[in-house]
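To: structure desk
From: M.T.
Subject: fold request, one chain
Message: Could you run this one when you get a chance? Sequence is below, nothing fancy, just the single chain.
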Amino acid sequence: MMQESVASRAQAAPILLVVEDESLVAMDLDGQLHDMGYQVCGCVDNGRDAIARARTERPDLILMDIVLKGDMDGIAAASVIGKELHIPVLFLSAYSDDQTVERAADAWPYGYLTKPFQNRELRAGIEVALRKAAVERMVRNSERWLAAVLRGVGDAVIATDAGGIVGLANPAAEALLKGSTLHGGLRGRAAAEVVRLEDPAGGGLVPLAPGGLPRAGAAMLVEHDGQRIPVDFSAGPICDDGEHLTGVAIVLHDMRERVAAELRLAYSERRFRGAFDNAPLGLALLDRDNRFVRVNRALCRLLGLEAGQLLGSDQAAFGDASDNAIEREYQQDLLAGRSDAVQYERRYRTRDGRLLWALVSATLLPADGEPQHFLIQINDLTQRKRAEEDLAHLAHHDALTGAANRALLNEEVDHGIAVARRHRTRLAVVFIDIDYFKHINDSYGHEAGDAVLKETAARLSRTVREIDIVGRMGGDEFVVVLSEVSDAAAVLALTEKLRIECGKPVHFGGHELRIAISTGVSLYPDDAQDFRTLLRFADSALYHAKAEGRNNVQFYRPELTARMEMRTRLGAGLRLALERHELELYYQPIVALDGDRPAAVEALVRWHHPELGLVMPDVFLPLLEEASMGEAIGSWVIFEACRQGALWNDEGPGLAHGPLRIGVNVTAAQFKAGRLAQTVERALHASGLPSHLLCIEITEQLQLADTDQTRAVMDSLRALGVLVAIDDFGTGYSSLSYISRLRPDELKLDKSLVTNVDADAERAGVVVAALAMARSLRLDVVAEGVETEAEKGFLRAHGCDMAQGFLYHQAMPAGEFEGWVAGLERHSRESGNPC
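Reply: Done. Structure tokens follow.
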């Protein structure tokens, strides 16, 4: 009945207890949880009731507010529940200050959600907490199970620390070694004092020190009173994650009963036959010529043969030649009396050709007037061997793709370089990166990304030769090592095959995923003499391939190292640029097409490098995230742009036409950090700039990365009264429905659509369609990169609102922008035409 109750509960919905001091919040949370399919066993508003209800109801999870009624808050209640009942607690709190979080962490919660939160966040937190609790429950059960097994196992089990002091001994060990302990138990005693093993052949002590591990075999256990007990022993190291020795595990199997049984069997043929024939392990008697004299049923089943097919046959006919030779050596040890029993591993071939790994234990039966026979016991190790092979494979191969990992690559390439050096041939290291892999993960999910990685690895392996190596470095990076290549042309032919094969679509979940690869190549011995340097040079070439538009192959050239060094130098300088006040905002005017008057300005950052001079953003902006400066520099740009915008709108550089709106681009780091709205709010407050005069520009690719996050960010900005523009529109994959859901205030057509729009019919059609979409959604449109009067005329004729580009002016410092505006005003007064 108890098992049925447990099983029925395991299949039912998880049971949750809500602890919340505000009744309305508790009622709302109760409704949400029921809608999600959970059972709520109750709602309480104080810590002591929470503990009492937890004791009686035993819920699967407790959702705990921190601030509660009464004299006990949620953290204190969670601590009691965790220690006493082991029920997982998920904190739901409006407080996220460091002190509260630190106190909450001391209660070992299973999660911490900050109010307000979305339903999906709540569900995700609950599911993660339930899963974590289930895993920890399994671990506790496993520990109890292991302890019970050790208590019940018949073999003596001892574990020592690195100094050889016994820290664990099961009851069987205490019983077997009681003669070696004068008084007291084994724990705390030196293993060398209580476990003294003698070699049964030579009589010398069998070492159990770490230097001799791992080891196993038969020995004589010497008791304190001199009594000797035959045992099978095994000793192995206990290591930490870093493979450092932390102790030794020793297992002793008392062989007295087995030895006595073997003697009794030798004198009692009937009992011997019964035990022999019905033994669960394979047993056989071999004559001194290694021929089968007698076999049991278990051995016949293992080999898939009848007893008549085995009797009289040479055992060597069913085994591996190298194993047969080793076995003969062990048999000679038995015949010479050097060992009473031996144990070794060997391979057999079954009737259907399968490979059978076996642990063979062999003894020599007393003659007693009869020819001597070997008694062998065969234990099937095939499954264990397969598991060991799987573990060995995992140690040298990537778990997801099956490609070689870094460790195996290092070994194989070092060997390949040595071979190439001896044979005076070339070796190529090909560094491969999947183009826009992050977009696949963000758009279709990590399962799709994993499918692309596995398919790419499979395609690489199918395309290369047998002598080549395919490895995965991590993420979406692969390395292919091409051996025995004659020259760069041969490498180019092979890499082009790889590029074409990997460029074929991948189908996943009803989607056709288009992929491409960028490839960098370095050659041995032309470029470097070791794998580490070859890999670095191939990485430099890969970076150049990406810079050249991706989906191409680039060979390493010495100047690429200089570029990588410059990239590293710029990344390091970015970390100091803010402190040294080396950044400056330039401003490019945005002009209203219905009157050619300045309507807005876009703030663009420039870097006055102390050694390199003025560095343009296309050089250093890609390095922001690598230098972990994306959010810091992005915040500085927002604050500085707001300060300058407030100054111009308060005093104005002669802006008689009205307020001047200022646009600011945001970095990917700002967008993903989730603090963009707070940064904007602080910048507006510090500068005094009216919120409707600030426009936050988000690139199309950036906002597509996470639909839910994008909507949340845009809603936060819209709540501040700030305008939002989709920048570089036309370079991504936005649809009309997607744009309508995001509800931006403005679209900025990318320069790639605007250039020659008056003469290119295809671009013209795209731009006209984009303008029509914007009008249907009541969005303003800014055309970027306008450089000719013809482009301006086309855009104006088709209803575009604003334009920016070199036709009006390139980006310029604040002072120069003020002079430009003043010049427009002066020209306007002189011509009598208001700008």
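Reply (cont.): The radius of gyration is 38 Å. Let me know if you need anything else for the meeting.
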